[in-house]
Amino acid sequence: xxxxxxxxxxxxxxxxxxxxxxxxxxxxxxxxxxxxxxxxxxxxxxxxxxxxxxxxxxxxxxxxxxxxxxxxxxxxxxxxxxxxxxxxxxxxxxxxxxxxxxxxxxxxxxxxxxxxxxxxxxxxxxxxxxxxxxxxxxxxxxxxxxxxxxxxxxxxxxxxxxxxxxxxxxxxxxxxxxxxxxxxxxxxxxxxxxxxxxxxxxxxxxxxxx
Length: 210
Description:
Layout: H1 8-18, E1 23-24, E2 35-36, E3 44-50, E4 52-57, E5 63-68, E6 71-73, E7 85-89, E8 94-99, H2 100-109, H3 113-134, H4 139-152, H5 155-158, H6 163-168, H7 175-187, E9 191-194, E10 197-201
Antiparallel strand pairs: 1-8, 2-7, 3-6, 3-8, 4-5, 4-7, 9-10
């Protein structure tokens, strides 16, 4: 499976078109750690113009995805299902909300169906690739996959979260298990970790697809 590439231009084009019809919901200067609960009817989309957000599973607080701007949240929600996640904001995050009806009308008005479908297709592929990366046969593969993903994220994000914390928040492995795998990978020369922070990936047996 090839590594998934985010259609940034499509996201940017759609987000830019929808922003004039949307409402800013992160007016505060400091947004780090703030949580937005999703309404049960979910009658709106969220537009991430700046920064990043964590999507946390409600029942166990596990981070199921970390998403960076530009991004649109809410496309995959099905009205017949329960709301299973909340949105945790990252630092200096700009998040807007827009009613679903208004968003779809704007997509039609500006003839953005092609970009809209690319975004939806990407989101479906993202979930598939994420699941492949996490549902591995052994703990080492899970850790390697998450390390591979972490290394692709922006430097400012990696510099503010330790490798063990990043992994621990995104899988069900115990902290001690993750520590053992990280120590083993470091001894084998697969990765470089300084003061707990991942600084370099030299070689990993398993890589992330997303």
